[in-house]
Each structure stands twice: as structure tokens, then as C-alpha cells.
Amino acid sequence: MVLFVIIGFISVSALQIIHFYKKKQYGEIAVYSVLMASALVYAISGLTDWDFPAPTKIAEMIFEPFSDYIFGARLKK
Hints:
Layout: H1 2-22, H2 26-48, H3 55-76
């Protein structure tokens, strides 16, 4: 099953990257590749029961200090 997921991601990515390359959108190729690679890792982790954190946990870890700063300052007024 993992092999089918990898083949699917590679085929979809190849088609999209070719489209970006023809339009000379090299920045889009880089961003698309990073996003598809992370999606592939999460797809494989879901199939094989790896212990990866959920994307919401990662977003909370990144944005919680900003939220605490913004809302903490608002509550002190």
C-alpha cells in the first residue's frame, strides 16, 4: 500500500513540476516540492502507524507564543 502511495505522489508531482518548469516558475517548484514531501511523509506515517505529531499540534507549537503575547497584552489592559 505504501508503494502505491509513493507512486501516486511521484506521478502527480511530476506532472505538476513539469507544468511549473515550462512556465519557469522555479520558486513554485521549491514550495510545491516541500509541501508534497511533507504530505507524503504524513501519508506514509498514517499507513504505517508512525508516531508523528498532528499538524495542528505543530501549528500550536509555532503560534502559541505569539497568541500568548497578543492576548496576554490585551488582558493586562
